[in-house]
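To whoever is on call:

I kicked off a structure prediction for a single chain this morning and the downstream step that reads the tokens threw a length-mismatch warning. I double-checked the sequence; it's 395 residues and nothing unusual in it as far as I can see. Pasting both halves so you can look.
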Amino acid sequence: MSRSTGRLAVLALLLALAPAVGAARSEWSGNISLEYRAFVQSPLDPRQHGDNLSGAFEPRWFYESDDGRDSLLFEGFVREDQGDAQRSHADLRELLWERVGEDWELRVGIGKVFWGVTESQHLVDIINQTDLVENFDREDKLGQPMVNLSLVRDWGTLDLFVLPGFRERTFPGIAGRFRGPLPVSTGEARYESADGDRHVDYALRWSSAIGEWDLGLSWFRGTGRDPDLLFAGDRLIPFYPQIEQLGLDAQATLDSWLWKLEVIHRRGQGAAYWAATGGFEYTLYDVGGTGLDVGLLAEYLYDERGGNAPTPFDDDVLAGVRLAFNDEQSSEILFGVIQDLNGDGEVINLEASRRLGERFKLELEARWFRDTRAGSLVDSLRADDYMQATLGWYF
């Protein structure tokens, strides 16, 4: 058993015993899922796996005191993967104590914090590390040790963060898919700070609703969550620099329109640079009296570093459509295409979900990498087109 798996098991046992201590409200929930990925093509590296089966367990426990002022949240995650040993992993997503006052909230422990409004990527979202072995879309996050004080005032909410300890990004292993020509050797990670993964980071964010606008201004100083990858012969070594980032996220709700913007300015990871993502979503409600809502999406993705950016999204456009059927099964479909305006390629995404009865949910996902240019970041994934089905049981 790995150290992370053992720690998760011990904490789960302790929490299972906790409700006996006079809890006003205590409940378990979560899901167990089975995932199958079918790859359209053979991998570029013969060491990589083909079609793949995996299973995941996500338990969640919530406790709230009699007076509602104190609460405790636990969320764990375990995955066993058929093809990639690095994707078989466990993580403590959350173990967070919260105390609520009249105009403040204090959270201490391991938690998840999300910042962002755009569909294609979340530039301002910097508190938690990406769990990259879970999915190429970078939506899954690792738990982050934190102390978070929220001050609720008439002029908005101010969140202050102390982040003691750093989580390294997970990467696919030698047999895994969605990686470049060379695997990343996570065991050789390097840091700019002499404190390594014990460096204490700091962040703050002001957020408020002003008229039709939801606004957020954020600041972060500490170990960058996006590592530089250093070439070392037959492998890549992650290097985590010290950075300072300013961020803005804004969303305006104007009738059927949602206007969205995320902007960052980052220093410390090479030359200082700007990056931004912005666009809109326009929704047609109850089309033809069928109950179907159709959302039309468009976004522009920009990175000042251009072709030197370690991301494929430096000059790209997203166009997509979201279908919400508003039925008893909560059926939804999201389709989108991200096109690189410099000819590096395009990424086609399809996501769909539907509840099956009271306890089950079926999710479908597919991605295709098209018209890639040799040497581009997207080109390294040109053989990783896939279709995926996930069946989850919720309790």
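Update from on-call: the warning came from a stale cache, not from the record. Cleared it. Sanity check on the structure: The mean pLDDT is 94.
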